[in-house]
Amino acid sequence: MEQVAYTARVRTLATEHLVPLARDDGRVNRPLVSAMGELGLLRDLYGGRPDEPPRDAAAMQLCLLRETIAAVSPEAETALALQGLGSYPILQSGTAAAVDRWIPGVVKGDVVAAFALTEPGAGSDAAALSLRAEPDGDGWRLTGEKLWISNAPDADVYTVFARTSDAGARGVTAFAVAGDSPGLSGEHLDMLSPHPIGRLTFDGVRVDRDDVLGEVDAGFRVAMRTLDLFRPSVGAFAVGMAQAALDATVAHVTTREAYGGPLSAQQAVAHAIADMATDLEAARLLVHAAARAYDAGADRSTVTRSAAMAKLFATEAAGRIVDRCVQLHGARALQRGHLLEHLYRDVRAPRIYEGATEVQRTIIAREILRRADR
């Protein structure tokens, strides 16, 4: 009942306060982020009591939050999720100085955060990062490029993963980098679905030891711990969009007249509704199972496998559901501004970012086969 009450409250806040601020221009929406801070929704990204400083994150609450807001406004959900993804490594692994500098502003909505992992030559193969962190006195200078970075180039702080040695995944270090650092520049990229995403160029950007997140050469662990938390919630985002699509379609087929009765009287339509509802429920259950495993402190292999399964199934299922909903609506669903037209564009990206579908299958198989070898 507590979770039901929580999601009802979040839905009301999102409907009344966030939807009017949402816009579809592909840039960081600071008024929207600020409103989420004022409403306490950014604080809800983290676990613990609302009146205490954030210390960690609760996967189930994160999933409920993302699913609920996604069903109302994908733009608001994306803005919220990016705050969490960009800031969680700082909260999780940052020095006291870094946490004090950035986290309060993120929670208030005054500071926009971003997660900068992907590069032109290192997408799914994150261990192939080439952005260099060269020693410079008691710090480093970053030189290279990041690509497909959400909230770039407008974020105030970036969690940046850079190569500090040539030891593959064991030679990567995570840093908190201020968005106004000298030598850091970027450009916005236009995407199929308007989304704040861009390219970053690092020209000798200086970082200090206090900017290191975790240990030197151990940044890959920081990235994976963050992704283990956020991958199930990407599934929750997809579930929220699929729920919105299915709700709209049920309303449509029960009121649209065809062949002397409502569309829902057609067996093919009714069976499509049944299949979509089943897919949606299965996706939601996988997401919740992965969140529970994370919150219960399950072993790393279980958490990683469950997170990958949740993201894989939920994002693929949401793609199928939204596509079928468009089909049942007909041409009206492809008209610019229609809910389904909007969801049709938004639902595609989650199958790629934070590890593409193919990568999730590799992770799942690796963890299963690793256990079989014991």
Molecular structure report:
The chain has helices at 2-18, 30-38, 59-70, 74-93, 96-108, 219-253, 267-295, 300-329, 339-346, 357-372, and strands spanning 113-116, 132-136, 139-150, 157-163, 172-178, 184-188, 197-208, 212-213, 257-258, 261-262. The chain starts with a helix and ends with a helix. The strands form 3 sheets. Strands 1-4-5-8 form a 4-stranded mixed sheet. A 4-stranded antiparallel sheet has the order 2-3-7-6, with no helix packed on it. Strands 9-10 form a two-stranded antiparallel ribbon. The protein is α+β, with helices and mostly antiparallel strands and 374 residues long. Strand 6 (184-188) and strand 7 (197-208) form a beta hairpin. Belongs to the acyl-CoA dehydrogenase family. One of its GO terms (molecular function) is flavin adenine dinucleotide binding. Residues 218-369 form the Acyl-CoA dehydrogenase/oxidase C-terminal domain. Its cofactor is FAD.
Descriptive terms for the model:
Butyryl-CoA Dehydrogenase, subunit A, domain 2; 51% helix; single chain; 10 strands; alpha+beta; 374 residues; 3 domains; Butyryl-Coa Dehydrogenase, subunit A, domain 1; 10 helices; four-stranded mixed β-sheet
Pairing-aware structural class of the strands and helices? alpha+beta
Name of the top-level CATH class of the largest domain: Mainly Alpha
Strand order of the largest sheet: 1-4-5-8
Low-confidence stretches: none
CATH superfamily of the largest domain: Butyryl-CoA Dehydrogenase, subunit A, domain 3
C-alpha-based Rg, rounded: 21 Å
